[in-house]
Amino acid sequence: MTRSTDILATALAPTIWGSTYLVTTEMLPAGYPVTLAVLRALPAGLLLLAVTRCLPPRAWLGRAFALGALNFAVFWTLLFVAAYRLPGGVAATLGALQALMVIAMARGWLGTDVRPGAVAAAATGVVGVAFLLLGPGVALDPIGIAAGLGGAASMAAGTVLSRKWQPPVPPLGFTAWQLTAGGLILLPFALFLEPPLPTITQTNLVGLAWLGLIGAAATYWLWFRGLARLDPGAVSILGMMSPVTAVALGWLWLGQALTAVQIAGALIVLGSVWGGQIANRPRPAGMNPSARSGQHPFQES
């Protein structure tokens, strides 16, 4: 498959994640963030384990739980805290900083070059998300800001380490390990910190099925598959597709008005995503800095 096909397939994941807010607010009971995170992650992870019949070897258990915590348990928990304590636009703008964090972490953990074009594209994308979602008179809560930054850092670390720790199994098995581990980490917190769920309705079941089967199992398979094939910086900036989808669904489904500033913000985000893919294109072997210095491009330093 070509790189363009891999980019488009990976971009489907954050595009679908943009429906999470609509599904959560319109189809699920309010006030159960950890319980709903468990119901999103654990059944999907167990289903994928049953399909793949691939359990992590003992040597991989620690990494599986570390990645499950970073990509799901910690990230989703802090995401909900930020969403409860901050306006949605502020929380999403803080989350967009993840692309810049990935560039820095990939440099430290993977030795990836910091490309000015990639940094510029990520920073421009953050501005676009702010235009898309921020409104006048925004209230800033310190705990919410800390949660938003912590959530972005958690997902960024999970993204880079998912590339660094490539297991000897297909991406679907890797996804199953992480979803199951993340759900198991969250389960005791859901049982002891939140009241029991009310009676589940048919609408609730449809919402949970969408978030679990599509919004978790299918999309994170695409995400981890992309991380195995593409540069982490190229993948992370695709995450900015999520707020664009969220705003588009609010306009199409809920009848929310779109302002000229929001339309401009959406165009800026789309342009930054496109620019980020160009900036993160693999360099020809002859242009690799390590090759110019006499080091074999695949030789570890």
UniProtKB/TrEMBL annotation:
Residues 7-133, 143-274 form the EamA domain. Its main location: membrane. The chain crosses the membrane at residues 7-24, 30-52, 64-84, 90-110, 117-137, 143-162, 174-193, 205-223, 235-254, 260-279. Keywords: Membrane, Transmembrane, Transmembrane helix. One of its GO terms (cellular component) is membrane. Pfam families: EamA (PF00892). It comes from the Bacteria. It is a multi-pass membrane protein. InterPro entries: AA-Vitamin_Transporters (IPR050638), EamA_dom (IPR000620), EmrE-like (IPR037185). Coiled coil: none annotated. Gene3D superfamilies: 1.10.3730.20. It is found in: Membrane. Belongs to the EamA transporter family. PANTHER family: EAMA DOMAIN-CONTAINING PROTEIN (PTHR32322:SF2), INNER MEMBRANE TRANSPORTER (PTHR32322). This is Probable blue pigment (Indigoidine) exporter. It comes from Roseovarius lutimaris.
